[in-house]
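Class, study these two lines:
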Amino acid sequence: MVRVRAMTLALLFAAALVWQEPLAKLTQGPLRGASDSTSMDFWARASLPGEYTLDLCTHDELSDVFPTPQVSTATAENDLTLHWRIEGLKAGKDYLGIRIRHSGTEVWVDHAAVFRTSAGDSSPKASLIFGSCCEEKTRPLQPIWNAIQLCAPDAVVLLGDTPYIESTDLEVQRKSYREFFEFEALRSTLYRTACYFTWDDHDYAWNDQFGLVKGRENSRRAFLEYHASQQLGVGDEGIFQSFRRGPVEVFLLDTRWFADIEESLLAPGKRSLLGAKQIAWLQQGLAASTAEFKLLACGMVWNDAVRPNKKDCFGNWLDERDALLRWIGEKKISGVVLVGGDIHRSRVILHPFKALAGYDVPELISSPLAQSVIEAAKVDAPGLLFDVGAAASFLLVAASRENSGAQLRAHIVDGAGKELFARTFSLAELSPAPGK
């Protein structure tokens, strides 16, 4: 009898171990998203559904939580993704430490992390990193992320093909994002730095695709689930957004969702790449911007000097592009710089656009972060200042305002941190001539 009782107790104990509630954890993240002088967005994905509380702290002992802890709910409907926005922060301040809890139990705690708000529009300087095209599966060693961290940028902007998904199936989209954000070299960079994203062809659908692709609503849904930005696009369309860092305002465009769906608002009777809603938003933002430099950034390149038969570049919508530049010239908007990716080459072009914009307009192309080089994309272009085929490179933009005037310096940097090219553009250079 004693032996039977002991065996019964052992079985009950074993059953209790088997049936005990599993412990929650983060399977991806946390990562930082959009940020300004008073708020920060964070993202993560959990292993279990439920409410998760994020505390941002002002002391490394996590004793001073600020402000009110934020709660996000992981559900099967949102693929267990979590989004938090911390508001009421102070400009240019370091917040030391982060804690994430589930049912009172810590699932993430970091006493050493430093999260800094932006210093505000009046800040005299800003540094931004731009890059595109990152393949983590075939290129598991990527020292480029260490080089990016050493630049200590105010923000990182990924211009698409990050990751390569090649599908509009919702579960394929989600799985690709999970695998991408598990990549440790990238995760450690995107953890502490404010990050912004748009998509290009391979994460919108597949190669060279745009517009009314079957299943594109799944691509947008997964994009919203897996990125920490609260306001993207308009209504249930697109993913465009803007943000400001001191002398620079970035208009991060969506060059996939609206393409070839309607007639151009800017060039009546012609095809539209950006769509009327995005163009109206962009025009309003540019007209209201007080930043010295306005960066129009997207996944595509803004020119037609591309490999043969490539259909996804502004070169195939030149009527709309030129109409936008003409409008910029009519409104005398200075400091416009074009930024693109996609083509697996890094390039700098000073476009001869004085007849349109009132000044020659730079285009800065950054591609790839980690991918193959496309030699067929080495095509001459009017105003081409620099071209390199490097399997790992990024663009560093450093802007400043000084007594002598505002200037923007563009650096092309390779994966080892070596500067390949640099050029300074003054605001005076990127302004219409007086009286014109």
